[in-house]
């Protein structure tokens, strides 16, 4: 039902404008960060960051698989979110890897994660387009 409700046109226009303005406001902030952030930093909870990110990926992949197997159209949202996390994990793996062998493994891992992300997106799209659907709430 949530997917079939049409919000008022004005609300959509205002929300779209707010999101667009937010993107524009981020540009000078990004320039500021590029100019002022140190080239390296030490993080207190480094293991927790990676454990948390990988846990989110595992939950997202499991939810995507479960919803897709049930032909639930909500898989499109979960699959898109999971693909985003997979892309981000690959990006951070490469950007935080030391040079040499560690960087090579990070690049290989990123290629695998891009493949997983693509599979999530295709799976979400296929289930979304399926006219028979399953649980089309």
Q: Could you characterize the architecture of this molecule?
A:
With 137 residues, the chain is mostly helical. It contains four helices and no strands. The chain has helices at residues 9-36, 46-69, 75-96, 101-129.
Overall pLDDT score:
88
Oligomer: single chain
- Count, helices: 4
Q: SSE order in H/E notation?
A: HHHH
Query: What is the gyration radius calculated from CA atoms?
Result: 19 Å
Helical amount: over 70%
Instruction: Give start-end ranges of low-pLDDT stretches.
Output: none
- Strand count, sense and closure of the main sheet? none
Q: Which structural class best describes the helix and strand composition?
A: mainly alpha
Number of strands: 0
Span of the ends, CA to CA: 6 Å
Shape: flat
- Proportion of β residues? under 5%
How are the SSEs ordered, and which strands pair?
Layout: H1 9-36, H2 46-69, H3 75-96, H4 101-129
Helix pairs in contact: 2-3, 3-4
List keywords for this structure.
4 helices; flat; 0% strand; mainly alpha; 137 residues; 75% helix
């Amino acid at each position: 039902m949530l997917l079939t409700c049409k919000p008022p046109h004005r609300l959509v226009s205002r929300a779209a404008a707010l999101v667009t303005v937010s993107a524009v406001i981020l540009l000078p902030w990004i320039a500021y960060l590029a100019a002022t952030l140190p080239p390296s930093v030490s993080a207190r909870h480094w293991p927790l960051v990676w454990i948390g990110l990988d846990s989110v990926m595992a939950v997202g992949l499991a939810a995507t698989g479960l919803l897709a197997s049930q032909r639930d159209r909500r898989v499109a949202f979960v699959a898109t979110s999971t693909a985003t996390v997979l892309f981000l994990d690959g990006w951070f793996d490469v950007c935080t890897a030391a040079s040499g062998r560690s960087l090579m493994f990070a690049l290989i891992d990123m290629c695998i994660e891009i493949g997983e992300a693509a599979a999530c997106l295709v799976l979400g799209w296929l289930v979304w387009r399926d006219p028979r659907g399953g649980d089309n709430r």
